[in-house]
Design a protein that fits this description.
Elements (H helix, E strand, L loop, with lengths): L1 H28 L1 H17 L9 H16 L2 H16 L2 H4 L3 H14 L20 H5 L9
Helix pairs in contact: 2-3, 2-6, 3-4
């Protein structure tokens, strides 16, 4: 009986470990950085219609810093660089020339795909950060024409 109980626990532990392998592999590969970069480039492409595409350069530059730190294996550097990007998106995106709807979408996506060890969720929780986006404050969605 003891053997069966131990065998069951070992099987359960092994199954749970296998469930986390894809998450660990994705975090180790840095695919999440590529996904965020692709989204920012998509938004940059849309901004060409309003001649605002250069406004996304600082965000792509910050993602390059994230990538460099990741490639060096510098976890603390990735954490700092990623949270700097999140701060850039949450704090006055219109000041840098990108619409708030775009900053919000990128911010939310970053929160979903960034591994927890590289993301200060307490500081950048989308529910807590709503006040950082001015259209949440005045209930107006800026589709890019507001500045």
């Amino acid at each position: 009986m003891t053997y069966r109980l131990n065998h069951k626990w070992i099987t359960i532990a092994f199954a749970c470990a296998l469930a986390f392998v894809p998450l660990i592999a994705e975090a180790a590969s840095g695919a999440w950085i590529d996904e965020i970069t692709a989204l920012v480039r998509d938004h940059q492409e849309l901004a060409k219609f309003e001649a605002r595409e250069r406004a996304y350069d600082p965000y792509l530059g910050q993602l390059a810093v994230v990538r460099m730190a990741f490639n060096r294996g510098d976890e603390k550097g990735v954490y700092v660089a990623m949270n700097t990007l999140m701060d850039m998106l949450a704090n006055d995106p219109k000041g840098s020339g990108i619409p708030t709807w775009s900053a919000k979408e990128i911010f939310d996506f970053c929160g979903k795909v960034t591994p927890n060890k590289f993301h200060d969720f307490a500081r950048h929780n989308p529910e807590l950060a709503k006040a950082g986006f001015d259209y949440w404050d005045d209930n107006v969605i800026d589709l890019g024409g507001g500045g």
